[in-house]
Design a protein that fits this description.
Radius of gyration: 37 Å
Number of helices: 15
Strand content: 25-35%
Strand order of the largest sheet: 13-12-15-16-7-23
Largest sheet: 6 strands, mixed
CATH superfamily of the largest domain: PPM-type phosphatase domain
CATH architecture of the largest domain: 4-Layer Sandwich
CATH class of the largest domain: Alpha Beta
Distance between the termini: 73 Å
Number of domains: 4
Structural class: alpha+beta
Shape: flat
C-alpha cells in the first residue's frame, strides 16, 4: 500500500497531532517541494513560504474545526533551492484524519497540480478579452462611421420646425442602411428624405452614405424630385448593394404649404393636421432604386400647424406587431404631436413625434430593424427682431433676454442660442465701449436679427459713433476676436455715420442618433444673474461663480476677486463650471486678477470640458486653467 500511495499521480500529505507534523507524503508531494526536509516537521515549517497565501492556515483550520476545506485553482508561489520562485496552481481538499473511535488524529491534504489547466484558462480568457476589445473597438468605429454618414442635425428654417431620430436595430449590429436628410434649398423650399438600404453592417452604411451624398448634391443644386431620384437610381444600378433601396422624398415650401413627394418603393408620408387626427398620403407608385422603374410625383398642400412625418418601415415591422401597425403609428404620432402622450412642454411637436412615438411603440416589443423618423411642421413665421438699446452696459442684460426669447421662437437649439447671445453681446459691448469713447448713455445702438430661407441667422449691430482702431492691450480687445471664432462669418464696416458689424451663423437642431431610445440630449444652461459663493471649507479665496459674467458684472467680479485674494497675495481657486456666459469683459477681468497673482500665490481656474466657460477659455488661452 505504501508503495502504491507513493506512486499516486496527485499530491498527498498526512499530518499528525496538534502541531500537524508531516508523517507521510508521496513522490508527487516531494516533487513540488524539492530539497526540503519534510518528514517529522510541522506543516507550518515545511511550507513556511506559503504562510501568507492561506494554505498553512487552511491545514490548522481543519484540525481546529474538524471540517474539511477545499480549494479550486489556488495560485501558490513556492521558493526553490536555486532561489527562484515557482508559480503553480492547485486544486485541493484538506480533510480531518480520525482514529477508528472517531478521535481527531490529524489532517490529510490531497491536491492536483493544475497549473497547465489554469494557464490554458488564463490564455483563453485573455484571448476572449482581446477579442471582446477588438469587437468593441470595431463596433465603436462602425458606430462613429454611421454618425459621420448621417447629418448631425436638421436646419432651423423660417416657418418650419424639423426634427429627426435614428434608432439602430441592435447595439451589436451597430450599423444600418437607413438614413434621413433635410436640405434647405436657396429657393426657400426644403427637401425631406428618408431612405432604406437593404441589409445591415458596414456595406449597408457605406452604400447609404453614397446614396445620401448623391441626393443631397442634386437637391442642393435645385434639382426636381424626379431628377434627383434618377441620379440615385443610376448609382443603384452600378452598385450592387444599393439595389432595391427605397426612398421617400418630399419637397416642402414653408411659405405656401405646397408639398411635392415621391414614394420610391417606400411607405408614404403620414400627415398629422393641426385640427386633429392623422392620415397617410397616397403612394405615388414609384419603384425601388435600381429596379428599372419610374418616379412619379404627387402634390398636396398642408396648412400652418400641420405636421408631415417620413419614416422607415422598421417602425411598422416591429416584433409582435400585427396588420394594424400602420394605424397604431398614426394614432401614437397624432397623440404625440398634440401633446397628449408624455409630458414634454419645452419640445416642439416634431421633436415629440420623433422621440415619444419611437419610445411608445418600441418599449413593449422592441424592434428588429433600424428605425428612422423625420418630421416637419409648418409654423407661423417669426418676424425679424429689431432692438434699440441705450449705449450703456446695463442694457445688455435685457437685450440678452429678448434675444433668447426670439431664438426660442424660431426654434434655435440651446447651443446656438448661447453662441449667438454671446457673439451679439460682444458686438453690442464693443459698440457701447468704443463707438462713443466710453461716454455711456450718449446715444443708442441698433440690433437687428433675422433668419433667412436657408436657415442662416444674420445679425447686425449698428452705432452712430466714430470708429476706433482696437488698441493692443493684453487684457482687452478680445470681443471681435471671440465673435469671429464663435460664428461662421463676421464683417465690420466703419462709415461716416457709424459702424455696422454683421455676423452670419447657421442654425441647426441636433438629431437623435441612438443605440437606445432613452438616451438623453445634452442641455446648455441659460444665462442667469452672477453669483459668487465660497467652496466648502470656509476659505473666501476658494469660490464658485454661477450665471453671466458680462460687461455689467465684470467690474464687480474683478473687485470682489481681488478683495478675497488680498490683491493676489494668497492662492485662489475659481470654479467657473456653472458660468452660463463668459463675455470678453469677464475674460479681461480674469486676466487682471491673474496678473496680480505670482508663483507664490497661484490662481487656478476650473471649468469642466463642454461647459460654456470652458469653451471661451479654450479660445482665449487664459493661463491657470486646469485640464
Amino acid at each position: 500500500m505504501a508503495a502504491a500511495v507513493d506512486q499516486l499521480p496527485f499530491i498527498l500529505a498526512v499530518c499528525q497531532g496538534p502541531e500537524l507534523e508531516l508523517v507521510a507524503c508521496n513522490a508527487a508531494t516531494r516533487a513540488v517541494l524539492p530539497g526540503r526536509d519534510v518528514i517529522g516537521r510541522p506543516i507550518r515549517e515545511v511550507i513556511a513560504d506559503l504562510a501568507g497565501q492561506q494554505f498553512v492556515d487552511a491545514y490548522y483550520e481543519v484540525y481546529r474545526t474538524g471540517q474539511p476545506i477545499a480549494g479550486r485553482q489556488w495560485r501558490a508561489h513556492l521558493d526553490l533551492p536555486d532561489g527562484s520562485v515557482h508559480e503553480m496552481f492547485a486544486t485541493f481538499t484538506i480533510v480531518p484524519w480520525r482514529d477508528a473511535d472517531g478521535a481527531l488524529r490529524g489532517v490529510i491534504g490531497a491536491g492536483f497540480d493544475v497549473t497547465d489547466l489554469a494557464r490554458s484558462g488564463q490564455a483563453a480568457e485573455a484571448e476572449a478579452e482581446q477579442l471582446r476589445r477588438r469587437y468593441e473597438q470595431s463596433r465603436d468605429v462602425i458606430t462613429a462611421l454611421q454618425k459621420e454618414l448621417l447629418p448631425p442635425g436638421v436646419p432651423v428654417l423660417p416657418g418650419l420646425h424639423i426634427a429627426a431620430s435614428y434608432l439602430l436595430a441592435d447595439a451589436d449590429t451597430a450599423a444600418g442602411g437607413d438614413w434621413f436628410d433635410a436640405v434647405a434649398r436657396p429657393d426657400g423650399r426644403v427637401a425631406l428624405v428618408v431612405g432604406d438600404v437593404v441589409g445591415h453592417g458596414v456595406t449597408a452604411s457605406g452604400v447609404m452614405g453614397q446614396l445620401r451624398a448623391v441626393l443631397q448634391e442634386r437637391l442642393d443644386a435645385g434639382a426636381a424630385i424626379g431628377e434627383a431620384l434618377a441620379a440615385a437610381d443610376r448609382l443603384a444600378q452600378r452598385v450592387r448593394a444599393a439595389h432595391a433601396a427605397t426612398v421617400c422624398l418630399a419637397l416642402l415650401d414653408p411659405a405656401t404649404g405646397e408639398v411635392e413627394y415621391c414614394t420610391a418603393g417606400h411607405p408614404p408620408p403620414l400627415l398629422v393636421p393641426a385640427t386633429g387626427g392623422s392620415r397617410y398620403l397616397a403612394g405615388t407608385g414609384g419603384m425601388p432604386l435600381g429596379t428599372g422603374g419610374t418616379f412619379p410625383v404627387r402634390t398636396t398642400r398642408i396648412g400652418v400647424g400641420d405636421l408631415l412625418l417620413l419614416y422607415s418601415d422598421g417602425i411598422l415591422e416591429r416584433p409582435g406587431s400585427g396588420p394594424d401597425s400602420a394605424e397604431e403609428l398614426a394614432l401614437v404620432a397624432a397623440d404625440a404631436a398634440a401633446g397628449r402622450a408624455l409630458h414634454a412642454p419645452t419640445s416642439t411637436a416634431p421633436e415629440r413625434v420623433c422621440t415619444q412615438t419611437l419610445e411608445l411603440l418600441v418599449r413593449a416589443g422592441g424592434h428588429a430593424d433600424d428605425i428612422t423618423l423625420l418630421a416637419a411642421q409648418r409654423v407661423p413665421v417669426v418676424p425679424e427682431l429689431v432692438l434699440e438699446l441705450p449705449a450703456e452696459p446695463a442694457a445688455l442684460r435685457g437685450a440678452r433676454a429678448r434675444l433668447a426669447t426670439w431664438f426660442t421662437a424660431v426654434g434655435a437649439a440651446e447651443h446656438d442660442v448661447f453662441v449667438l447671445q454671446h457673439a451679439i453681446g460682444e458686438l453690442a459691448t464693443n459698440a457701447i465701449e468704443h463707438a462713443f469713447g466710453g461716454t455711456f448713455g450718449k446715444d443708442v445702438i441698433a440690433v437687428r436679427v433675422a433668419l433667412d430661407a436657408t436657415g442662416v441667422v444674420e445679425a447686425s449691430v449698428a452705432d452712430h459713433g466714430g470708429w476706433q482702431v482696437p488698441e493692443r492691450r493684453p487684457t482687452r480687445g478680445r470681443g471681435l476676436a471671440l465673435t469671429a471664432q464663435l460664428v461662421q462669418s463676421l464683417r465690420v464696416e466703419p462709415g461716416a455715420n457709424g459702424t455696422v458689424a454683421t455676423l452670419r451663423h447657421p442654425l441647426t437642431r441636433p438629431a437623435r442618433l441612438l443605440a437606445r431610445f432613452d438616451e438623453p440630449l445634452p442641455a446648455v444652461p441659460a444665462a442667469a444673474e452672477l453669483t459668487i459663493a465660497e467652496l466648502p471649507g470656509g476659505d473666501e479665496a476658494q469660490v464658485r461663480l454661477a450665471g453671466a459674467v458680462d460687461a455689467a458684472s465684470a467690474a464687480h467680479l474683478r473687485q470682489e476677486l481681488l478683495r478675497r485674494s488680498r490683491g493676489g497675495t494668497v492662492p485662489m481657486t475659481i470654479d467657473l463650471t456653472d458660468v452660463s456666459l463668459l463675455a470678453s469683459a469677464g475674460v479681461s477681468a480674469l486676466h487682471l486678477v491673474a496678473e496680480s497673482h505670482g508663483e507664490d500665490a497661484p490662481l487656478t481656474l476650473i471649468a469642466v470640458p463642454g461647459s460654456p466657460a470652458r469653451e471661451i477659455l479654450d479660445l482665449v488661452g487664459l493661463p491657470g486653467v486646469t485640464p
